[in-house]
Amino acid sequence: MSQQSIVFSEEFLRQLEHLALAASRPVAGHLRGQHRSRRTGSGMVFTDYRPYSPGDDTRNLDWGSYLRLDRLVLRLFEEEADLPVYIFVDASRSMDFGRPSKFDFARRFSAALAYIGLVNHDRVSMVAFADGVMEEMPARRGKNQVWRTLHFLERIKPAGRTSLQSAFRSFFGGRRTRGLVIIASDFLDREGFESSFQVIRQFRHEVFAVHVVSPEELTPQFGDELVLVDSEEGSATEVRVTDDLLASYREAFLQYCGEIEGFCRSHGWGYVRASTDAPFEQILLRALREQGLLR
Amino acid sequence: MSGLGMFPLIVVAAALGAGLLVFMLYLLRPPARRLLIPSGLIWDRVLRAGRRSDDRLRWLLSLLLAAAIAALIAVAAVGPALPDASGNDRVLVIVDNSPTMATRTSGGDTRFDRARQLVLELLDGAGPGVRVMLADTMRQIEIPAFEPREAALKRLRGLEVSFGQRPDIPAPALAAAAGARYVVTDGVQLRDLPAELNVLSVFEPVENVGITAFAIEAVPGAPHRYEAFLEIGNAGSSPRDVTLTLAGVGAERVEREVAVPARSSSRELIDVSAFDGGPVRASLMMSGDGLSVDDSAYGFLPMRRTVRTILVTRSNPYLEKSLAAQPRMRLTVIPPDQYADRGNADLYVFDRYAPDAAPLAPALLVRPGSAAWLPDQGAEIAEPAVASWDGAHPLLENISLRDLYVEKAAPVRGQADNLHTLVASRGGTSLMVTGQSARRWVSLAFALEDSNFALDAGFPVFLNNVINWMVGEPDVRAEALGMVYLPRTAARVIGVDGADVNTVSVAGELRFRAVQPGIYTVVAPGARTRIAVSLLDTYVTDVNASSLPETTAAVAQVSLPGRVLDPWVLLLSVALLLLGIEWLTYNRRVTV
């Protein structure tokens, strides 16, 4: 299947530049950024007072308090830090399905989110995974890193079976700063998604799941005698497709989607189901804002 | 034709062809299209849930279809005869094969030949699906059943005229539901026919003279003379002069012209003393005789004219009178002290006495006492009960010892190779033995006064058996044509032509079918029986005693529609239809 280009229109990029990734909790970034952190410092948002100690920045002395109380009191401000963003792109063979393919859709989605993060000086890491980490782009900051990011996404090809758990264990096994984890995947993992998400959860990352589905997958348009071949496993299943069976399949598929969404919601994570036939810009600009990922 | 009626090779070829066809049909099943899907994860969930109930139903449906197909093919192979309440597709044909049907007609063929021809004409117009029950009056067809026309005609070709029993209409045939019922007969021996039967007559009056009685007996008061008694019947409507010939051994044949009145009989007495002992054949010669089987009869002239018997006893009037009553008996009674074996006797009877040396003639010994040539006698025992007796031995043939009571006896002690126990008591002792020294002898362990043997009905028979077996007179029996029953389990029967005759052993009896008059010889270990077989039946010789009109010239063909299809064809068709349905449902994945 030919891959679609990730190039966005200039107008759409301008729209993205007005957006920023939002973290619901204070972030743990090390560099200055635009997100609230638990550290106090030279930010804009007042948080507290404390007695002056020699060596403190005298610019933060509250002179009004000194006049009233005749004591030197230092004003404390919430320090704004950058947001570590980890974008996981599912590059398993099951993503190479549909028109446009789920993989292309996930790449464009990831590219747009990465662009937003880079524009806002967040540290954006990109990970392509299948049954493990397939390829990783180290954390990058700044708008000038956009083309490298896009080039990374252009390079990856769908291959292998899906194993979220292997990918997460492999990536988060190293020391990673707590941040926002965005996963663009179809979540068709035979090992189950719950155990995989538990890996992320134990590192206390904030998670946003982008569930990419294709309309062909949701409402198959085939019938009669078929041998269904699993693109990842290669296993074949002989089946006579009837209307009743298709209805059962649709029900099972929606139930599966609901299970993922329910899991995410129950842990306070974000979830959006993105159908590949839906307008890409609409999902990005409206749905993600509604879900609180963008502001 | 039924499924079983087909030749085995054709059945096998048809089964192989059907199997090949089914296999090819299954090969025609189009392969399912392969479709790549992202993952079978969801499909597996759906199919796993769906298969639990659907697959069981599909499996059951497949099993039901396969079982129905197999059952239909199996039933079709058996060739079922479906009951038809109306019986419109069934014909009952009863063929008379009694002895008079062997009568030759003016056309040269027999009445039975005509009957067979009539049946062929009768069934010629029957539809292909008509089922025919063929029965005969002499029970050659043991279990009549409705069957396809060809099978019935094949069975008809195997029928023949039979002798030896009274002909009748088989009850199962009369009870069967049939659209048309026929009986083909000459009406001579088969009378009072049921009204529901359409009678096809093969009767035609013919001239027939036959021997209806034949016996050779000693002349009373002159035991050396033998006369043959013959009765000759004339069934024709005009008096006949026939030549009666008696042929025997050792003398010229005796010929006599006999005039037999119309529809009456003549009786003849002919002296046959000139013949040596052995078979005697009586035959009639005339022209235009209808039935040949009654033109000859056989008898047997005893080998020995008299049996010189010496009874050695102190006094035994009953034994003396019983022996004297035996035919051909020349009896001499002497007391034991006058006994001297001078070789002038054919048989000795020793009553409560045993000579010191074995006699030169066969001997019957009654409680003989001790002698060197006889086996030792044990102590006297009281009331020994009879446990068993050898009924197959010629001495005890046609005798029952069930009621024999013995008050006291001195049984033979021990066993010897040349001894044969004829009667054994419950204690294992021998009450009657036979052996051989110089000649054969038989010894009773009890005296006649000490038992009820002399009062038994079988005692004269026993004496007769003793005389025949001892003196070497062959055992002779006279039997009628047909089935002959022998009180033996195994024997060889030699027929008139010297060839062995097929025998059947049933329930302790040996049976064989005598199909023509003559002397038959039964050869068994230690015994040889001659059987003189003759027809000698007035009712058979009277071949014109029928109330039926003369032969049915032409017979209307049976015009029954019959079934368009035989049941087995119908069943096979349904099986094929089900097979097609099964194939279709299999390809449509409705069945597994």
Intertermini distance of chain B: 36 Å
The SS-based structural class of chain B is alpha/beta
Distance between the termini of chain A: 35 Å
Q: What's the gyration radius of chain B in Å?
A: 37 Å
Largest β sheet strand count, sense and barrel closure of chain A: 6 strands, mixed
Radius of gyration of chain A, CA atoms, in whole angstroms: 23 Å
pLDDT average of chain B, as an integer? 85
Major beta sheet summary of chain B: 8 strands, mixed
Strand order of the largest sheet of chain A: 6-5-4-7-8-11
Portion in strands of chain A: 25-35%
Q: Any overview of this molecule?
A:
The complex is a heterodimer of chains A (295) and B (592). With 295 residues, chain A is an alpha/beta fold. Chain A has helices spanning 10-17, 63-69, 102-119, 146-155, 164-172, 194-202, 215-218, 243-266, 280-291, and strands at residues 32-41, 45-51, 73-81, 84-90, 123-129, 133-140, 180-185, 206-213, 224-230, 236-241, 270-275. Chain A is 34% helix and 27% strand. In chain A, the strands form three sheets. Chain A has a six-stranded mixed sheet, with helices on both faces. A three-stranded antiparallel sheet of chain A has the order 1-3-2, covered by helices on one side. Chain A is elongated and about 90 Å long. The relative contact order of chain A is 0.15. The mean pLDDT of chain A is 85. Chain B is built from nine helices and 30 strands. Chain B has helices spanning 8-27, 41-78, 111-124, 149-158, 171-175, 317-324, 459-471, 538-541, 567-587, and strands spanning 33-37, 90-95, 131-136, 146-148, 180-185, 198-201, 209-219, 222-234, 240-249, 254-260, 264-271, 276-285, 296-301, 307-312, 329-334, 347-351, 363-366, 381-382, 386-389, 408-409, 420-425, 430-436, 440-444, 475-480, 482-486, 492-494, 503-506, 509-514, 518-524, 527-534. Chain B is flat, with a radius of gyration of 37 Å. Chain B starts with 7 loop residues before the first helix and ends in a 5-residue tail after the last helix. Chain B is α/β, with parallel strands linked by helices. In chain B, the strands form seven sheets. In chain B, strands 15-14-16-17-23-22-21-19 form an eight-stranded mixed sheet, covered by helices on one side. In chain B, strands 4-3-2-5-6 form a five-stranded mixed sheet. Chain B has a four-stranded antiparallel sheet with strand order 10-9-12-13, with no helix packed on it. The interface between A and B is medium-sized, with 35 and 21 residues. β9 (224-230) of chain A pairs parallel with β1 (33-37) of chain B, so a sheet runs across the interface.
